Structure formats: C-alpha cells, structure tokens
Write the structure tokens for this entry.
Amino acid sequence: MIIDCHGHYTTAPKELESYRQRQIAALDDPSHVSSKGTLNISDDQLRQSLENAQLKFQRERGTDLTIFSPRASGMAHHIGNATTSLHWSEICNELIHRICTLYPDNFIGVCQLPQSPGVPPENCIGELKRCVLEFGFVGCNLNPDPSGGYWTDPPLTDRWWYPLYEKMVELDVPAMVHVSSSCNPNFHATGAHYINADTTAFMQFLTSDLFKDFPTLKFIIPHGGGGVPYHWGRYRGLAQDMKRPPLGELLLRNVFFDTCVYHLPGIELLLKVVPIENILFASEMVGAVKGIDPETGNYFDDTKRYIDAVPWLSADDRRNIFECNARRVYGRLKTSRLV
Amino acid sequence: MIIDCHGHYTTAPKELESYRQRQIAALDDPSHVSSKGTLNISDDQLRQSLENAQLKFQRERGTDLTIFSPRASGMAHHIGNATTSLHWSEICNELIHRICTLYPDNFIGVCQLPQSPGVPPENCIGELKRCVLEFGFVGCNLNPDPSGGYWTDPPLTDRWWYPLYEKMVELDVPAMVHVSSSCNPNFHATGAHYINADTTAFMQFLTSDLFKDFPTLKFIIPHGGGGVPYHWGRYRGLAQDMKRPPLGELLLRNVFFDTCVYHLPGIELLLKVVPIENILFASEMVGAVKGIDPETGNYFDDTKRYIDAVPWLSADDRRNIFECNARRVYGRLKTSRLV
C-alpha cells in the first residue's frame, strides 16, 4: 500500500473561493456581525473536482491513500481575526470530511487549524477535537507563522504552543508544519516562504528541549525538510558546536520529512542523509508545481518515480517510506476503519 | 590558484566588540551626539588574530586567496540608525583594508554596507565607492533584510535598490546576498536566517526582470544557494508554470552559488544540478560551523575536501570552481595588483 502523506484540496469548486471572498469583503464592513454562513457544493461537484485531478493521479501513479487537507496557501491565517479563521477552517475541514466520506479508500483527513496572529494556539483545540473525534481525521497542519511572512508569533518551541501540543499528544495526532500564503512581498509562497518555514522549524527544534517535554509529539516537515537535508552537515555541526546531542537523539524520534522534492538528485540526497525511518512518501499533488519536466517527460510532482529510480533502496526501505513510516507517525491510521 | 570567495573576519581582537558595545550603549543616551570614535588595534594584534585561524587554515587546506569581509552576523543593520551603521561599517571595512594591506597575497576585501531598515540603499554608495576606489575592494555584502528577521524592506528586485545596483555595475563589483544576525526569535542566524535569505533572494530573482534592467549585475548566493539546489526541480517547475524563461536564460548569467555546504552529499548535489560555471569555491571559514565532523575526522567547513572527493569533475571544472569563476564574477580581481 502506498500512502501519500501530503495532499491538499487545491481543486475545490469555485463556490469555495466565492465564500472566502464574501467573508473577506465583510471584514471591511464595520456593521457586519460575522457569521459562518453557508456553502453550497453538491457531492457531484466534489466528485467532479477530484476525478480528473487527485483521483486520476492516484490511479496513474499507483498510489493508494492520500492524507488530505485543505489548500495550504488558502488558509491565510493573517486575514481577519480568530473568528474569521474559525469559520473558514470549519468550512474547509467540513469539505475534507465530505470527501473522505465519499472516497474512504482514497482520502483520510488532516485539518486546517483556526490560527490567527497573536491568538494563543489553545484556541485551536476545539476544531482539532471536532476533526479528530467526529470526522476521524488523523493529523493537523500547524502554521508556524500565522502572520503570513512577518514571523510575529513565538517560535514553535515556546510554551505559547504547549496547550495545543498537549491535546495533540492526547489525541495521538501529529502536525505537519505548514505555512500558508505570504502577505510579505519578500516571500514567494511556494518558492520561498514554504521552504523557509521548513528550515526554520527544524532549527527551532534543534535548539530547544521541546521533545524532552513532549517525548511523543510528532512533526512532519514537508517539502523534503526545506533546506535541511542539503545542509545536513551544517545542522550536525551546529548541534555539535552548541553541545547539543546528536540529531538522532535530539529530534529524529519526533521530526519527520516528506518526499516533496521535485527532481531525482534531491530525492537521492534526502534518502542518503536522512534515516529512512524518518522519511514519509508524499507528492503534494495537485500542488505547488503543476507542469511536466521537459528533462524527463514526467510530472515534476510525480515523486514516486524518483524513489522508484533509486537503486540502492531495499524492499524494506521502500515499504517504510511508502507505508509503514506513515502508519507510525499518524498513529490514528492504525485504528482507522480505512486502512 | 585557489580562491575562497567567502570568508569573514570572525576572529577580530576583543577591542572591536568593545567598540560596538560602546556604540550600542550610547544609543540609549538621548544627549549623545553620535560620532565615529576611535578603535585602537595594532598591526600585531591583527596578525595574531589571523595567524592561528584563517591563515593557518589556508596553509593547511591549500587555499590561496580569501575574498574577505567583516563578520556577517556582526553587521546587525537593525541596530541604531543609518549613522550607527555608517560608523560601524567604516570601522569594520577599515580593519579589512588593513588586513588586506598586511597580507596582500592572502586576502582581498569585500565591504559591509551601511544599510539601515527603511533607509534607501543609495545611502550606501559613498562607503561602497570608498572601499572599492580607495581600498581596492572587489565586492560588497548586501543584506536583503536590514530589519534582522522581520523582512520589512522591499524585495531585492524592487526599484528601491536600483541606485545601488547602478553604482555596482559602474564599479564592476558583485554583491554577495548576506543577511546578518536575527533579532527575531523565530530565526537562528546561521541555521535558519542565512539559509532562508539565500532561498528568498533566488526566488525574488526568478520572479522578476531585474536582469533585463541590469544585464551585467551579479550576485553570489552563499551557503550553497540556501535551499535552492536541493529544490532545483521545484524552481525549474515554478519558472515553467509561471511562463518564465528557463533558469539558464532567466538568471544564471547573473546569479552564482558558493560551495559553503558542509558535507559531501550536499556538495555532490550542488555540482550535479547547478552549471559548473555558476559555482564559486568558498568555505566561510572561520565561520558558522567550527567543529570537526566525527564521521570524517575533518573540519565540517573544509569544503575543498568535498570537491576534491567528487570523481567526475574534470580538471577544467575544478579550475573554474576554484579560480576562474571567481575571476569572472569579481571583475576587479583581474585588474587587482594582487592576482
């Protein structure tokens, strides 16, 4: 079985975007009382939005189950306030839940959290519980920078985040560290902000004792760990210079990387330097890069091909990367009726 | 000849730090009229600070000339105002000039710029001219985020920066894109902020037409290009999705990467995906990582060993990486009496 741990619902019917635009427009109207409102999208529309996209690619590429969450760049936690974010997260998560109900063999949910800059993360616990306990979701996406590129909230290792971590541990759900769109003109979202956030989170973990406080807390760093595997020597060296334990002991029981790296040399590097048990297959399809690589004739984001092309992986390595590591990290997958 | 294009004066006598502390302390005193003040460091102190550090490593590792600049994390452009930054830059650049005069075969200068958040970059032109025309420096370090981790100034591709670029082109000096320390608790300086800035700058270049406006402007992105080579497929794909030209045409006549990547697999990746003519040897010694890699028994930052260990490089490739590319990018090296 092949589990893709990183897929977003990037192909939603236009009604979802219209809902969001109405929500944002209402923020300018001081007389407006925010309410969740309604979104009318039929099951057929949902099916249609997936059939020629995620489902088609699953079939073509031979992957089975996608761990599926709302569009990451759409989260935009910097817009409006905590209520804006709550309504928007609920709407997006409910769509994911409907999709997982329509296609229980193809998708299992991960939720967007109703974060908002400056608002304590414990404010997200209600929506996390709803998604995990009522919808059967197996994880959440945690935005380390709700400000959208100004990085005004505390680092992920600050006690500010601890109440949410306590609930994650209790529910046995990991978080994928995933920023959203950038409202800072310095940062292109998928080309800079995403990769930077991945690198930043890793270094926060490296310099803290977070995992002494939460030995079973788990994070997936997406996009192949940002810049981290490429600079693996730098990180080993920095940890050593700072008299920190070796990375294995310090954080590799808690921090995992996905395989959203869109060329073979990058995947080879990842598989060479990061322990196999810390690597989870993912493609982020349909996602950041949509085109076909003229150098290979295949989709850039068809990451399974790169892994298949690495000759020195054992059958066990492949099973771990494609399935078993995801089952270990997403503890609730084990008990899900789906798998 | 082996040219290391990225070395900082990280081993200055403690008098330099005392000067800086006095300067910072004076900022708290409203009655204080800022003046440059004086710094007393003897030539013998300078020699001593280098003999057992940069010079020793040059000898041990078999490198010849280091393109040398003030300590990057010490620039701290976010402290004080433009006058603070000017005095501090002058002091630091003068030390580099003295070192280059003492050891003309070992060091050639690159200057720190007196940037300050919100202050137009053309304010740096005076110090750039002084360093290039009076001191014989061959480049500058340009901080894309003078705020120190809040990214409040415009992207490097904004016209905000154009007057400085005009002067750089006129003087035929490239800039290394190099942030300084971070005052944002989210970002560890050498482990996150540096790498993020490298990635960010590349994506800014990718999405702009800066090099149509300045066809001969040149940037070196240090630390092996941040996360860029590891995600080379992502960048090729993003450019293609955005209907931008291929990277070669779009920016590889203007953007270069150094080899400050502290393990062999990272260097192999860099040499595999980035055209050889865009790679400049560098070690950043004595810099970000000071220790010895227990896996190899060698210094993490002894990057020459990694390049030497790559079997498929031709003699021409090596000459380009170690010498010729630096001579092309740092145009004034050609005319310098030193080389």
In short: Chain A has 15 helices and eight strands. Strands of chain A lie at 3-9, 65-70, 107-112, 139-142, 175-177, 219-221, 255-258, 279-280. The radius of gyration of chain A is 19 Å.
